[in-house]
Amino acid sequence: MSLKIAVCQLRTELEQDVTLAKAGSMVKEAAQSGADMVALPEMFNCPYSSGFFRKIASLGHEKTVAAMSRWARENSVILIGGSIPEVDGERIYNTSFVFDRNGQQIARHRKVHLFDVDLPGMRFKESDTFTPGEDITVFDTEYGKMGLAICFDVRFPELFRAMAKRGAQIIFLPAQFNMTTGPAHWDLQLRCRAVDNECFFVAATAARYEGFDYECWGHSMIIDPYGTKLADCDEKEQIIYADVDLERIAQVRAQLPTFLHLRSELYPVAE
């Protein structure tokens, strides 16, 4: 079975309505170019900065969720809705919503591992704002099972092995690596997760906003189960596409049958 995947690498603007209009236009363009599944970046409706998280959360997440549902329905695509601040009572989550071609929500992933780091030249603590999620997210589509995680989650390979063991054929990762970790680890970790689990990997990141207090590395990409890049880009705003043949998963797993040799009694992973 084959499908076409698009990643909309968009720059988040300071005004949410401007960003939403741009995101909707990019989803439409991707659909008109034949995309079956479209992915947006992490925090695409909110500048990635501690000074904006609570401000945007105070507006509520319902408006953006309704917009994503409409984009999926009007363009007849499966939409991986990047991530947005989701408010649930007193808690705020970094959450990705997924919609089918009819605009129905079919999945929700709350970022499990929060970005609390002390890097040279940069300290960041997502946990000052967000509550971590508690779920391993695998969902059903017309193309089979898919997995979903967000940005810093990628540094925890057990999460991705669990998704693969639950049947995920394509794993989506909305993200915003920065100018320190991006050059060092972005490409390496994405390709490792694809190779580890012999599945397709789709990383959707924001375009760089030069001069903003958090500059995103960009470089969205789509990777096959052998670790080969099917599509990638630079830091600028753009849409990338890849034709994905899901039969490639079985081919790679037959050549390198790692899943047949798992020693789950020695290193158990949630199934």
**Text of the CATH class:** Alpha Beta
Assigned CATH architecture: 4-Layer Sandwich
Topology, number of strands: 15
Number of helical stretches of at least 4 residues:
6
> Structural class given helices, strands, pairing?
alpha/beta
Low-confidence stretches: none
Radius of gyration: 17 Å
Biggest sheet layout: 7 strands, mixed
Fraction of helical residues: 25-40%
Oligomeric state of shown chains: single chain
Query: In what range is the share of β-strand residues?
Result: 25-35%
- Morphology call: globular
Helix/strand order: EHEHHEEEEEEEEHEHEEEEH
Cα end-to-end separation: 25 Å
For this structure, what is the CATH homologous superfamily?
Carbon-nitrogen hydrolase
Assign the CATH topology.
Nitrilase/N-carbamoyl-D-aminoacid amidohydrolase
What key attributes describe this structure?
single chain; alpha/beta; Nitrilase/N-carbamoyl-D-aminoacid amidohydrolase; seven-stranded mixed sheet; six-stranded mixed sheet; 6 helices; globular
Can I get a quick summary?
This protein is α/β, with parallel strands linked by helices and 271 residues long. The protein has a single domain, classed as Nitrilase/N-carbamoyl-D-aminoacid amidohydrolase (4-Layer Sandwich). Helices cover 27% and strands 29% of the residues.
